Amino acid sequence: MVGVAPAPAPARRRGPRPPAPPGPEREAARAAARRGALIGLPPLVTMVLLFAVPLGIVAVYSVATRGRTGRTELADWNLDAYARLLEPLVLEIAGRSLGYAALTTLLCLAIGYPFAYWLTTRRPGVRAVLLVLVMLPFWSNFLVRTYAWRVLLGSDGPIVTALAAVGLGEVRLLFTPFAVVLGLVYGYLPFMVLPLYSSLERLDLRLVEAARDLGATGWEAFRRVTWPLSRPGVVAGSVLVFIPSFGAYVTPELLGGSRTTLVGSFVVRQFLSARDWPFGSALSMAILVVMLAATVAYFRAQERRS
Amino acid sequence: MRTLTHRGRAAAVLAVTALLAAACTGGEDESAAAVCAPGETDGDLLLYNWNDYVDPDLVPAFEAAYGVEVVEDYYTSNEELLARVSAGGAGYDVVVPSDYAVAIMVEEGTLLELQHDAIPNLANLRADFTDPSYDPGNAHSVPYLWGTTGLGVNTALLGDVEPSWALVFDPEVAGALPGRVSLLDDPREVLGAALHYLGLDPNTTSEEDLQRAADLVAAARDWTAAYDSGTYEDLLLSGEVVVAHGYSGNFLEAFDGAEGYAYVVPQEGATVWTDAMAVLADAPHPCTAHAFIDFVLTAERGAALTEYIYYPSPNAAAEALIDPEILDDPAVYPAPATQERLQFLRDTGEFETRYTDLYVEATS
Amino acid sequence: MSTVTGTGSTARGAGRRGARREPEAVRPQGRAARLLTGHGWLTFAFLYLPILVLVALSFNDNRFVGVWGGATLRWYRELGSEPAIFDALRNSLVVALVSTVLATALGTAAAISLDRFRWRGRRAFDGLLFLPVIVPDVTLAVMLLLLFVQVLDLLAAVLGVRATFGLGTITLSHVAFNVAFVAVVVRARLARLDPRLEEAAADLYAGPWRTFRHVTLPLIAPGVAGGALLALTLSLDDVVVTSFVAGPGSTTLPVYVFGLIRRGVTPLINAVSVLMLAGSMLLVVVSLALQGRRGGGAVRAAVPGRT
Questions:
Q1: Which residue from A33, A243, A251 is facing C117, i.e. has the nearest CB?
Q2: Nearest-angstrom CA–CA distance, C238 and C307
Q3: For residue range C79-103, what is the model confidence (pLDDT) as tens digits?
Q4: Does the ipTM surpass 0.85?
Q5: B179 in a structural domain
Q6: Which residues does chain A have within 8 Å of residue B23's beta carbon, measured at their own beta carbons?
Q7: Touching C: which chains, 3+ CB pairs < 8 A?
């Protein structure tokens, strides 16, 4: 399958393919292209059927009409659902979701960076064990882990009891924005730690030493050498944390109370209690577009910087 | 293969078009359902019911009596049921929607017209349940249980309180409680409660009235801990809240053996609801479904159901078998004076989205 | 678009480079080191606190979690009398295994096709494969629900067969999001392979299939294993998508647990959770043992947790 003209095809390369020289090599390149398409065909068909087509259906539903009983009428095509995206309520919830996701990402970075750094400074044997220990809780079910926080944060729970015992009085934690962000940070921390760990671990430490030899302070060496070199990890980790926290549904449902409605719950509510599928579809389309644009813009910006 | 992109794109477009065309035309020709004899079965029963809504003996008893198996799945709200069912292809036989959901499903044509001849135990129904407003003549549904939506109160902490929505909406009362409250996570129930408290129609389609109710709910955020439709009894019993908005039977079941709690129906009026058994239009086993409905309507099963989950029964024959203590408990069977102030929630059609919008706005 | 692969490659690059250098040399010294170490252990405490509480409370002889009522095994015994749990577990395993096998095969093919060949439509495919990585669960759930509604209607109209939602729709949905994740992990591995190895095999007159079978596949095996583990975990963890496309008798374990949580059936949830945790640990230990020293990266690549 892979033999004749392996065409290393760096995935990141942009721009047109250089024209293949005429003759047998061109034939070989053509054969390789055919083979590549052939191998790619089953997954391509799968993705078209299970992703592109559903996306098209959602797009169609988003311009349909909610019938009297809530059944979607595939008639009277209109853009009302999209117009509703600009209502203050929607913007407020979207803004809140962005805020929560950004806060979660920053907190994960603040906790994860020193943690990942610390991991890389352990002896290799210890490091392997510690890494498995980082992973282990995340092999239990996501729901169950979030649920454990509900127990921990409850007004009879250990944390509130401990805070009261230290004399901080009656503190309410469960069903607050604090609980939601805590749950999100807890849920997505490993997404930050692992990419950070890999990029820090691969860092050529001689550069840091060189900086120190040239008289840089520890902080300066970090700021000028370590941080810039670890940026790929920061970028990857941030995207991996930001995207799922923006669309989170289960965590705010279990840990949130009033004033904590996020986009995920809002979409589900459109499909369930409002039975307004066109609006729910339009919201889904908007989320996808915003996420796509944000991710691409973020990667572009990071590429430019480095 | 060279033009794969173009072809791929064309294929995708074609596929979507084909699917939509099918969606517009398909699904009309439901063949006429076979006639079922009383007690006839045509396969295993696929039951889609509320969480925790049968007594544990009912399903095994049905399985033993009819020699079929029962596959049970659960939902936690009518909306979940509607989302699954109105799309078609849900694949269940019997579902248990509440009153307004029955009306919606009848209008959408997702329910089978019942063959009353196959359900002789219909005769056991109380007279006031034989012609419900949401489904005249029980043409498509048969009442399963009914109940009220009210407030569970921690009386150990609050003492004897006046049964009123003020417990969750009045800043003077609710704001001064020695704890917080929880409301159902349900736009119609929460706004309905607020409308009752304001003395307005709980099924209002007046934007102005609804806005007043929403303002009330928004103001209540300060002492509302959570909007929760599944665990409010636990929140109340674990002390997380001192007043919880919820369904009568759930509270009474949770209070069994716990001192210092009471369920009250607010004096301003409250929601009364009937959950009804219905058969889906595309049910794979309609006869087993009818047999099941008939089985539930027997006096013994009706009594066992009510004794287990503390929701009142629409079954007159069952009342003779129900523990008198339950029968006389006004928390289970509301007193006549209370009954007069109870109202069904009805589907408000296009206005329904306003309820959701204002609810989300008020709570978020 | 393909920048996400960077994630995979960084996440997987870790393993064996460590031994080459002297970590001691740049260990932060003094106060900074103590701070870092303190932070490290605190973070571990944060990660494990809920797990410990969960395990402890599963032995609590009190229906209410906050109050310790003595130790008991009764919740575990009660689990035994809940056949629904075992049905859900069986459904979960069936869906996870089938969808993982399909997604791994398809994802690996996608990775090879995109990384080793240039063909028209490649860029578009690349973009399409990127979308499932960034689409929120809820959106994907909605998309798949609408898709299956249409497909089932179509089947009913064309073939006259009324298919229903169930394990089939759940499995296909899991394939839908897992192909992309497998492809990301495998591509990261491919990107680090020296194409000259394959060229060499071709020069030695190995046919394309033999080259793939004897050179490429063994080299990317850790990536494929990592992708499969990731797919397995995502599938076993999914609630949102599954609950949208489930049908009669197809409740999976996470959906069942979500139901328990929403009903507030506390100690039972704890007992189920502890068993699930024990099961996952077993899986980790087994996969570590299988991978041995050579491909530890696969486990690392398999970070669970969508939702």
A1: A33
A2: 7
A3: 888 888 888 989 999 999 999 999 9
A4: no
A5: yes
A6: 74
A7: A, B
Q: Which residues of B75-101 are buried (b: 16+ CB within 10 A; e: fewer)?
A: bbbbbbbbbbbbbbbbbbbbbbbbbbb
The structural domains of chain A, ordered by start, are 88-305 (1.10.3720.10)
Give residue-wise pLDDT tens across range B106-119: 999 999 999 999 99
Domain co-membership, B102 together with B173: no
pLDDT digits (tens, 9 = 90+) for A214-250: 888 888 888 888 888 888 889 889 988 998 899 898 8
On chain C, the residues whose CB falls within 8 A of the CB of B229 are 262
Architecture of the domain delimited by C83-301: Orthogonal Bundle (1.10)
How many angstroms away from the CA of B288 is the closest CA of chain C?
A: 15
Q: Calculate mean pLDDT across residues B269-278.
A: 96
- Residue with the bigger pLDDT between B15 and B342: it is B342
| Interface touch C263/B231, C-beta < 8 Å | yes
**Structural tokens at position B325:** 């203590």
Tell me which chain A residue has its CA closest to the CA of residue B182. Answer: A257
Sequence spans of domains, chain C: 83-301
Domain extent, residue B114, equals 45-146+273-333
Partners of residue B146 on adjacent β-strands: B274
Question: Other CB atoms closer than 10 Å to residue C76's CB: what's the count?
Answer: 17
Do B139 and B153 lie in one domain? The reply is no
CA-CA distance, B209 to B215, in Å (whole number)?
Answer: 10
Residue B29 lies in a domain: no
Residue among A76, A56, A99 at smallest CA distance from A281: A56
Q: Which two tokens stand for residue C102?
A: 């399909």
Residues C155-186: tens digit of each pLDDT: 888 888 778 899 999 999 999 999 998 998 89
For C262, name the nearest residue in chain B, comparing CA atoms only. B230
- H or E segment at A66? strand A65-66
**Helix, strand, or coil here: A248?**
coil
B117 within some domain: yes
Q: State the first-to-last Cα distance of chain B, in angstroms, to the nearest integer.
A: 52
Residues C50, C54, C56, C57, Cα dihedral to 10°:
130
Residue B5 lies in a domain: no
Give the distance from residue C268's alpha carbon to the nearest chain A alpha carbon, in angstroms.
12
Residues of B in Cβ contact (< 8 Å) with C121: 4-5, 8
- In this structure, are B191 and B292 located in the same domain? no
The mean predicted confidence, pLDDT, of chain B is: 89
**Which residues share a beta bridge with C269?**
none
| Integer Cα distance of A98 and A294 in angstroms | 11
* Contact of B55 with B30, CB cutoff 8 Å: no
- Whole-model pTM: value is 0.84
Rounded to the nearest angstrom, the minimum Cα separation between C152 and chain A is 13
